[in-house]
Write a structure and sequence with these properties.
By secondary structure, the protein is an alpha/beta fold. It has 7 helices and 12 strands. The protein folds into 2 domains: about 120 residues, Rossmann fold (3-Layer(aba) Sandwich), CATH 3.40.50; about 110 residues, 2-Layer Sandwich (D-amino Acid Aminotransferase, Chain A, domain 1), CATH 3.30.470.
Length: about 270
């Protein structure tokens, strides 16, 4: 079983479900798309850790019993926990659920893309300035911070890190894959993402016309409404959804890189 965890307003959730469902069926499994409210209303939560630190978890989502040992991979696009109610009560419960979900995601024995981070369940949820600071510390050229004199007419482009690959976003067209000025970034960004423990990352570059590309900002929940063939194939590889391709969990150790710039069943949506 594969899980797709997403927010209700996630514009990429349905396109991803449609794109990944046939591969899950072909692999003899099921892709279960779970919006955040359904996850919070799941029953029968059980999270256990033995004396050796091994964990097992189960939960009941409607008719679906999710057992950690049956999961092959999780595509995690969760945002901050959102609960209705009195302000003080809601804030307390949100923190409790944030901790439960973060522990559950960290305990799963399968690849989780992306893993929970102290700042967000779906990876680092931070300001553009934070991302530029991380990029600068990794030796990547970054855009000037607000307050500096910025040139007008900036050009921007979007890149997608998918595991050990970095590809131009589908809307960029074939020309972006042949742009030599982007190649150093395509080579360097997978290592940058690994250093942050992120498997999937959307990176925006910017430049003055005729100038070099610099790191602008990033998002660990990339927009994936359109999937061209290279992006689709890379995503299948990350989730072990191609024959004879085991999922490749992220290495937690920094990787040196250029210092620049169940039975076959249809995919289903689980609602509360």
């Amino acid at each position: 079983m594969w899980l797709l965890l997403h927010e209700l307003d996630d514009a990429s959730a349905e396109p991803l479900r449609r794109a990944l469902a046939p591969a899950a069926e072909a692999a003899g499994g099921t892709l279960l798309a779970v919006p955040a409210p359904a996850l919070l209303q799941a029953r029968g939560w059980s999270l256990r850790m033995d004396s050796q630190g091994a964990t097992q978890s189960t939960l009941q989502l409607g008719p679906h019993r999710i057992a950690s040992h049956r999961l092959r991979a999780v595509l995690n696009r969760l945002g901050p926990v959102q609960l209705a109610g009195a302000e003080a009560d809601a804030a307390y419960l949100q923190q409790e659920w944030q901790a439960v979900l973060a522990f559950w995601l960290a305990s799963l024995p399968c690849p989780v893309l992306n893993a929970a981070h102290p700042t967000g369940l779906g990876g680092p949820q931070a300001s553009p300035s934070w991302w530029r600071l991380q990029a600068a510390q990794a030796g990547l050229a970054t855009r000037a911070e607000p307050g500096a004199v910025l040139a007008t007419g900036l050009v921007r482009t979007r890149l997608l890190v998918l595991g050990d690959r970095c590809l131009p976003a589908p809307e960029s067209g074939p020309s972006a894959r042949q742009d030599p000025t982007l190649q150093p970034w395509l080579d360097a960004l997978p290592a940058f993402a690994r250093q942050l423990g992120v498997a999937l990352l959307e990176v925006w570059l910017s430049r003055e016309r005729g100038g070099p590309w610099v790191f602008d900002h990033a998002d660990p929940r990339p927009l994936l409404r359109e999937l061209d063939a290279p992006v689709h194939e890379a995503l299948l590889d990350c989730l072990a959804l191609r024959p004879s391709r085991p999922a490749r969990p992220l290495s937690q150790a920094p990787v040196d890189g250029p210092a620049f710039p169940l039975h076959t069943a249809p995919a289903r949506e689980c609602h509360p």
